[in-house]
Amino acid sequence: MARPTPLSGFPEWLPEGRLVEQHVLDVLRRTFELHGFAGIETRAVEPLEQLLRKGETSKEVYVLSRLQEDPDSAPDATDRAGRLGLHFDLTVPFARYVLENAGHLAFPFRRYQIQKVWRGERPQDGRFREFVQADIDVVGAGDLPYHYEVELPLVMAEALGALREIGVPPVRILVNNRKVAEGFYRGLGLTDVDAVLRGIDKLDKIGPDAVAALLVDEAGATQAQAAACLELAAISGDDESIVDRVRELAERHGATHELLDTGLTELGALVRAAAERAPGVVVADLKIARGLDYYTGSVYETVLVGHEQLGSICSGGRYDTLASDGTTTYPGVGLSIGVSRLVSRLVGGGLVRATRSVPSAVLVAVTQEEDRSRSDAVAVALRARGIPVEVAPSAAKFGKQIRHADRRGIPYVWFLGQTDDDGVVAGDQVKDIRSGEQVPADATTWRPPAEDRWPRVVPAEG
Amino acid sequence: MARPTPLSGFPEWLPEGRLVEQHVLDVLRRTFELHGFAGIETRAVEPLEQLLRKGETSKEVYVLSRLQEDPDSAPDATDRAGRLGLHFDLTVPFARYVLENAGHLAFPFRRYQIQKVWRGERPQDGRFREFVQADIDVVGAGDLPYHYEVELPLVMAEALGALREIGVPPVRILVNNRKVAEGFYRGLGLTDVDAVLRGIDKLDKIGPDAVAALLVDEAGATQAQAAACLELAAISGDDESIVDRVRELAERHGATHELLDTGLTELGALVRAAAERAPGVVVADLKIARGLDYYTGSVYETVLVGHEQLGSICSGGRYDTLASDGTTTYPGVGLSIGVSRLVSRLVGGGLVRATRSVPSAVLVAVTQEEDRSRSDAVAVALRARGIPVEVAPSAAKFGKQIRHADRRGIPYVWFLGQTDDDGVVAGDQVKDIRSGEQVPADATTWRPPAEDRWPRVVPAEG
C-alpha cells in the first residue's frame, strides 16, 4: 500500500510524544489517587437515546453499525431505539454507571476516569474528533455538601501544578457560581436568566456595547439592567473582596435575592480556601457564563497562563441532578481535563520533551551471533534490578551497534568480556556513549545514575 | 430514568475489579518497558478499506457514521471509500502506523500498545464486543532476524509470570512453526498446505478419524499422507527431543524439504532458549494450526493452566510482511494478550481480589463543619508524604464516620486533637478500625505500614 496519511482530527504521537502524554496521565492518576478517587472505565458506547438527552450535542455523535448487519433486522436510520453511539464525554457514561451500579457503590462516590471520547464535528482550531479526557467527580446520593465544590478545583490545581516541573505553564482556574449570577439577575428583576447568560457569554467576542444591546433585545432588559449585568461581569479577583464588591453593586442597583446571598457565601468560601491552599491559582471571574445553563452551582474553567487562546483545558461544575432513577437524585460536582489539547500544545509547541524515545537505558552489544545468549544473560541480570535493557539486533561491528543505540537515544552500551589470543580474560565493560567514557562493569551490581534509568519528561529548554 | 442494564459484550468493572485490571496493565507495562518496548497508542478508527483487507474479519467491524451526516454527502452503504470503522485488533493499526511514520522510527522498532478494540460479533462464550488487548511487536525494515521469534514469547512468559504473585495461574505457551508444518506437508507431496492446516485445526473438535477423512477429501491426501500429518500433530514437548522426533517421522515417510530443515532449526532454537530462561513454560505443540494460514514462521498460543477451556489468552506469530509500501517490506513478530478475557476470569472466577476498593488509606474525621479546614490540613500533610487520604463527607457522629470508612475498606480514621472543657489539649490520634487500636499520631511523621498504604491486588484466598 502507499504511505498512509494522518486522519484530520485523530491525533497520534510518535513514541517521544506518547512518553509526554503517558507522563501527564501518570501524574494525574497519582494525584487523583492520593485524594482518594477510585479509577473506573466505562465502555466506549452508550445507547443513542442516552447520548442525545442533551439536544445540542446530537450533531457530535458517532453512530455505530455493524458492517454485515442483517438489513431486515437493522433499525431504520430514523429509529434510534437500540442504536449505539460513541460517548462524547465521560459525564454521561458516568451518570449511567452510577445509576446502574448504585447498589454497589458507597456514596459520596469519588471517581476518576481517564479515557478517549469522540465527537463527530469538523476538526478545526485545535478541536479533535478523538481525544483523551481525565475527569474527577464526586457524586452523592440525595445530597452533596458544598465543600466538594471547594475541594475539586483544588485537586485539579494540585494535579496541574504537579506538571509544572516538566515545563507545563502555570494554570489559572476561573470560577463563577450560577446562584450568584441568577440571584443577581432575578434581584434586578430579570426573569429570562438563560438569555442573559447567553448574552454575557459573548462578551469576549463582541464587546460590552453589543452585549448590552443583546440583553435589551433578547433578555428584556432595560438599559440600566443591562449596564448592571455588565458591571457584574467585570468583577474578578482572587480574594474575598470580590464578595463585597458584588454586594455593593447589588445594593446600588437594589438587587436582593436569597439565591444571591447563598451564591456569595459559597463563592466566598471557595476563594478563601483557594487563597490558602493554592495561592494565585483560583480567580473568581463573574463573566464566566459558559456552562451556567446546565450547572447549578459552581462552574470552572482553566487556562494555561500565556496560552489563553488555547481555550479552557479543564472545565466543570456542579450539577444538582447528575442522575436520577425517579426515587433518588444523585447530585455531582466534577472537572474534566482535556488531556489531548494540553499534550498537543506541550509537544507541538515545543514546551516539553522526553530525554529519549525508548525505555532502554542500556543496549547490550552482541559480539557474535553464537554468543547472543551471553548478551541475553547480561540483559536478564540488569532487568532483575529494574534497569530497562535491550540486546543489539545483530552482531554487527561495534561502531554500528553504538550508532544503533545513539539513534534511539540509549545512553549506555554494554560489551561482553573477551578472552584474547593469549588467553587473558577481560571483564565486561559499559560505555556512556555521550561522554565516550568506558568502564569495567558487573551486570549483577552496576546501575546507571538515577536520572538515566528511565526516560524523563523535562522542560524543552532544559 | 429507570435503572440501566448492562450491554451484553461490553464489560465494565466496579472499582475493585478495575483495580485488578489496572494492576495487570501496570505489571504488563513495566515488563514491556524493562525489555525496551516503547509505548504507543493509535487512533480507534481506521479507513474501512484498510480494516477489510483481511476478508474474513469483515463481519466483525463496527462502522461509524455521523448522526447529522448530510444525506447528500453521505456515502452509499455499499461504498466503502472514506468510511471509518473501529479497529478490531492492534496489528492492523500498528502496520499502518509503521508505514505512516517509517521515516521517524528506528528499526528494528520495538513497541507495546495497550488499547481497547471492538468486534461487532454476537457476544457468546466469553467473547466480548469491546475488550482490551496488550500487544508487543518488533518490526524490522527489510529483514528481521529469527532471534526475535525466540525473544518475544519469553517477554510474554515473564510478563504473565509476574502476575503469578497476585494469583494468576501459571501459563503454558504453545508454539509451532509454519515452516515445519508446510515443509513436512510438501515433503510428503501435499501441495494444498492451507487445506491441510484447516483440517488439523479441527483436531480437538472432531478427533483424528474425522480429520483424516477431511484431509483425504479436501486436501487431496492419501490415507498414508493423512496418517503422517496426524502423527506430526501428535508431537509435543518442551525440549529439543521434539526436533529429533519430527526428523525421525519425516525420514520414515520420506518427507524431505528445505523449509522443514529451516523450520526445525528455528523451533529447536526457541525450545532450547525457552527451556533455559522459562523452564516448563514454552511447549512445542505441532498440532497448533490456527494462524498458520497468515503467519509465516513461529506461531504462539497461550493457555492458563487449569483454565484451558478459556482458550488462548495470548497469541501471535511472525509475519514476513507486516506492512509494505511497495519499496520496503516490514516483517514483524508479536503477541497480543487478551486482557479483558484474562481479567474477566480473574475477577469473575474469584481468583484475585483487591484489599480495598478505594485508594484512600486514611479517612480524616471532621469534628465540626467549621473545623473542616483543620481536617483538610491533616490530609495535605499526609498526602505530601505520598499517603492517599480523603476527608469525611460531613461532621457526623464519629461512629458514623468510622462506618463510612469501614464500608469503603479504608483502614485508618484520623481524629483531630481537641481542647477539653478544662483547657487540656489532646493531640491527634489515628485508629486502625480493623483492630480498634487507637494511638497518638502526628500528620507530619505518621505513616501506615507499607502493606496498607495503597490497595493491593492479592490472591483471593490470601
Structural write-up:
With 462 residues, chain A is of the alpha+beta class. In chain A, strands 1-5-6-12-11-10-7-9-8 form a nine-stranded mixed sheet. In chain A, strands 15-14-16-17-18 form a five-stranded mixed sheet, with helices on both faces. Chain A has a two-stranded antiparallel ribbon with strand order 2-4. The model of chain A is unreliable at 74-78 (pLDDT under 50). The radius of gyration of chain A is 28 Å and the shape is elongated. Chain A has helices spanning 15-34, 48-51, 91-101, 147-161, 178-188, 193-200, 203-218, 223-233, 241-252, 258-277, 339-348, 372-384, 398-408, 450-453; strands at residues 38-39, 45-47, 62-66, 84-86, 109-118, 130-139, 171-177, 236-237, 282-285, 298-304, 314-324, 329-338, 352-354, 362-364, 389-391, 412-415, 429-432, 438-440, 457-459. Chain A has three domains: 1-44 and 87-157 and 314-354, Bira Bifunctional Protein, Domain 2 (BirA Bifunctional Protein, domain 2, 2-Layer Sandwich), CATH 3.30.930; 171-304, 2-Layer Sandwich (BirA Bifunctional Protein, domain 2), CATH 3.30.930.10; 362-459, Anticodon-binding domain (Rossmann fold, 3-Layer(aba) Sandwich), CATH 3.40.50. The relative contact order of chain A is 0.12. The interface between A and B is large, with 97 and 97 residues. Chains A, B: It comes from Cellulomonas chitinilytica.
